[in-house]
Structure formats: structure tokens, C-alpha cells
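Checklist before submission:
- one chain only
- standard amino acids only
- sequence pasted in full

Submission:
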Amino acid sequence: MTTRKSTFFYGVLIALASLVVGMVIASRLDLTPASFAGPMSVPPTNSAPLNGPIDASTFRNIAHNAGPAVVSIVIEATRPVQSFSDFFGLPDQLGGGRNRGGQSRRPEETIQGAGSGFIIDSKSGYILTNNHVVDGATRIEVYLDGMQEGLEEGLPAKLIGHDELTDTALIQLTDPPKASLTEAKFGDSEQLAPGDWVMAIGNPFGLSNSVTVGVVSAVGRDTPGAVQGRPQEMIQTDAAINRGNSGGPLLNIRGEVIGINTQIVTDQGSGNVGVGFAIPINLVRDILPQLREGKVTRGRIGISVLPTPISRDLAASYGLPNTNGAVVAGVEQGAAADRAGIKRDDVITQFNGKPVKDNKALVDMVMHTAPGTTVPVEVYRSKKSMTVNVKVEQLDLAHEQEQAQGGGSSRQDRPRNPRNEPTDTSFGMQLREITPAIARDLGLPPNKSGVVVSSVEPAGAAARAGLAPGDVLVSIDGTAVTSADQASGVLDKAAVGQPVRVIYSRDGQEALAIMRKR
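Returned file contents:
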């Protein structure tokens, strides 16, 4: 072998040897650890019809097959220690001290909480649960089926993403076990109907993987959600759900997840009384990719809509061809809808080229539209159709809650007995003229037009429509209100059962109410 060839040969040999040695060192020293932050595998949805017989082994098989995917979650969090000043409004003399900035420093205590969850990606160790289960957690531990809390250490986990609106959270095991994990399967929550059999599995009162069985009591039930002022559509069930079941799965008779157990109704205690609620899994499935990214983004246009569907007579008064659509009750000043020219008392019948069935459908369409997108919106105004273009904004729940909690003086502080004599109406309310004193007490701008509601009968038409003392009536069925007598006369002409549209002002914001005389 020549010198040149031998040099080349040994050079290649050394390079290969270095590569092999390098691979061995890396494998021994774990310099290239496996990554658990890969793309999440969203479980496929089984939308096949639910049918087939139920026998003595049906629920046993569901528990056996789906149970291993259900986990118990234990969290630690810190909170300020309560002191005497919290209860009696006294200065805190007993502790806490002050920090370097001179501000009082409250001592903190560590608290524990527990809930449930279920595995949706075995390779990456992703687990779905409720946001309120892990909210504020400084430490998260997960116990798999078969692990005994208190006798062995749980698996550490971290928060990946959360969504306050649907009360859902995605966590991930940071040190997954070597044994393979069982994944939950997804069903189709749109298929559910009252009377369908369901099973709940969870960690009530620390009793891990407890199984309860019941039926679907109702679907599409609007219940107070985690965000004030934004009700959440839920599945109602009588399958026993207790404290600690939160975050666990509600399963159909195929053992597929069709909801996340979230809320219960109690009789002032903490036990189940047969009324529990679960988040439909279809709502959660749609936001899973965003949860994986850590944040869920939704659209808004800055309007409020009437909470009830459009009736036939109300549709006729608006000149609508049918009862589809959503009535705009109020428009936020300066928001996207306001800039586009949408006004209160408009009826939105199409959004981005799709028909709007009702108020719920419109809210869903808007929230599922990417912020920054400009969409055509068809509205009916004065019995005529028109189209405006709206640039969708990003929903900021924190700002929305601040606005809801901070606006205007309280209703209790408002004058109920202005000096001028009240004018009765046939809608269960009394009206008075706006005097300078009333305008000052209510914080109204000078020369504010309209009349003020001075009293409301508890069960009257005005109360049912949401009107309250201190509201200022601006217009009735499109006619501007100029005096109490004029407003009363317009209202008296309304036929029994006929919808009457009232624009009113409260806390500086105008809104729409629909009243009906009985």
C-alpha cells in the first residue's frame, strides 16, 4: 500500500472510530435526551351512531378499558395567611411586617388541592384537566391508575396551556414512566341526547378511579361559567360527580370521552344531589392545538346580544323573512362593531357569509374568527338589509371583567324617589322627568334626553326585560322619548303580547330591551 493510500485509509478509519466513540459517549452521558415537547397527537373523534345492546358487562368493560387513562392530580399552591384584619377590618398588627418598599408583607401558607384528568397523548405525556384544578399551582403531581397516593411519590407535571373560558387546562408529565400509557378515546358530544347512558371516572374525596353511572339529563344547558357574564354550554348528568371529580372524563357507552366533569349543584353541602355538569368534548377538541401553544385566542366585535331567540312576532316587527338572527342589544363605543357602523336594535342575520341561526351561533362564530380578520356582516335595520365590513378584534377576558366590575355607580346608591310625580305605565314601571337634580345624582350629561325609570314591579314586564330603577328610556320602537307622558302613551298603545323594543341608558352605555305586555 502506498504512503498516500495508507494515509487516506487511516484517516477514514480514525474518523469512523471517532464517530463511534462520540456516539457511545453521547448515549452513556445522555447528551441527547429524548424530547417530550413534540407535536401533540389529537385523539380522533368517533362520530359513528351510538347503538347496540347494553348488558351486565357493558359498564364493567368501560371501566376496565377507559380507567387506566384516568389520573389523579394533586397540586400545591400558596396563598396569603388570613389575619384578624381580614375579618374585622382592623389594621394588621400581628405580623407580616413590611418589605423594603414600605408595603405590608403578608405571610403565606402552602395549601393542597386535588382533582382528576385523563391522558390524551401517551408518547408526549399530555393530560387534560380543568383549569380550576391546576390554577395557581406551584407543584403538580400526577398519580396513574394503580399508584397509591401517600404511599408512593407522584409523577411530576407542568402546565402547558390553559383556557379560563372553557375551564380547561393541558398539563404534561415531565418524567414519564417507562411503561406505556393508556390514551383516552374521544367520542362526539354532538350526538348526545337526554336519556343516553354515561359513566364518570375520577378522584372524588381522594378515592382514585371511582366509577359512577347515570344518564344525560340535558344537553346545551347554559350554566354560569368560570368567567362572570359568559355562561358556558354544558352537558347535564345525574352520574354522581363530587369534589375531586373535576377534570375527569364523562364517557359514553363505548368508553369514549364526551365531556370533562366540571361543576356540581349541592344543597349547601359538598355532596352530589344528582345535578352535575360537564364541558362538551367537542368544544375542548377544537382548542387543543392552541392549548398546546399555551394560549387560546378568540375574536370579538364588541356587542351584546339579546339572550333569547327571535320569536315570530318579533321577526315580523323587524321585517325579517324568518326567525333566524341575533338582535344587537348594545354596542361598545369604539369597538370593532361600532367602527363598522353596527347599531343597537340591528339584527345580524349573516356573519362572514354564513347564516346566523340565533344569538348563541353568532357568539360562537365571532369567537372562532381569527383576530385581525375582516368579515362581511349582514344586518337588518328599519326592515331593510345592509352589509358592513367588521375587522374582528382579540378577546381580552381580563379587560372585559374589569370593565364589567368597574363601571358606574351602584344601583342601590341611586335615587328612587325624585321630586316630580311619577307616571304609571302598563308595563309594571313608573317614569319621571329628568330634572337637573336627577341628572346630577345619576351622573347624566347635561340636557340628557329621555325619562328615568323610578320604580319597577318585581314581576312586571319591565322587570322581566331587565329594566331597573335609574335606567333612562331613550326610545320606544324607534320613537324618541321626550317626556314621561309621551312615553307612557306610546307604551299604552302596545297590544298584549306584542314585542316592544326599548333603547335605554345605564352607566353611560345604551342597550336594548324587549318588553311584552301581559
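Reviewer check: Residues 1-10, 12-38, 84-90, 406-419 have pLDDT under 50 and may be disordered.
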